[in-house]
Amino acid sequence: MRSLLIPITLFASTTAHAGAAPAHPAAASRAPIPRAAPRPAALRPIEVGALPPSCVALAHVPADARIATPALAAHVSVASCAAEQRMNALGLAHDDASMKALAIAVAPSLAMLDDVAAAGGPAWQLTAQFTRGDLYRGMVVRMRAATHGDASLEPELKPWLDAARAAFGEVVAIAQAHPDLATTNAVIASDIAASARALAPR
Question: Collapsing DSSP states into helix, strand and coil, what is residue 7?
Fold first, then answer.
């Protein structure tokens, strides 16, 4: 699975120009007034008390943070960490109970990633989708390991494989719509490349 700590400094380049002041005060007065963009959805607070202990520190957001980046980064890091820790705690076998347990274990993390995608811009939407695909792929790997590669399990795993593929497809689509993301952010460039590899015919 991907690194649990999302380096927020790497996302600075995607927002640096947004806050830049006009070169001359008069330029602003001559510019057409754009329509107000829809306000992004608000991030729900992380329920620290429900987290595995090893993930609590990742939920910290500086009290003086004036932009959304630290909170978005915390949500992605916590989502990945919590899912991994909860899955690690499971004793898996080749049965429906194990598959249900895995689905329950990752459900809170998937909800957090939905929040990130709704509240963040293209960079964070891409990151949320890649993390989602990575989680589904991890679920498949764990079940295959628990059943020692028993091929009879594959039809049951297909929905997870399809969900992972759909998420990686979203990563590639976002990257194509915003080609600057891959050139300004090393983490995102790596996620795009990994998603393309996941989608390649085998």
Answer: coil
C-alpha span between 130 and 132 (Å, rounded): 5
Residue extents of the structural domains in the chain = 67-202
**Exposed / middle / buried, residue 20 (Cβ in 10 Å: 0-12, 13-18, 19+):** exposed
Q: What angle do CA 25, 28, 33 make, to 5 degrees?
A: 165
DSSP run (H or E) holding 60: none
Instruction: Point out the residues of the chain with pLDDT beneath 50.
Output: 9-10, 12-39
Q: How far is 83 from 139, CA to CA, in rounded Å?
A: 10
**Structure tokens, 180:** 């600057």
Query: What's the longest Cα–Cα distance across the chain?
Result: 70
pLDDT per residue as tens digits for the range 32-73: 444 444 445 678 899 999 999 999 999 999 888 888 899 999
pTM of this structure: 0.80
Sequence-ordered list of residues with C-beta below 8 angstroms from that of 101, at least 6 positions apart, any chain: 90, 92
Residues 164 and 133 sit within 8 Å (Cβ to Cβ): yes
CB atoms within 10 A of CB 164: 22
Among candidates 198, 140, 121, 189, which has minimal Cα distance to 167?
198
Tell me 10's DSSP state: G
CB 129 within 8 A of CB 167: yes
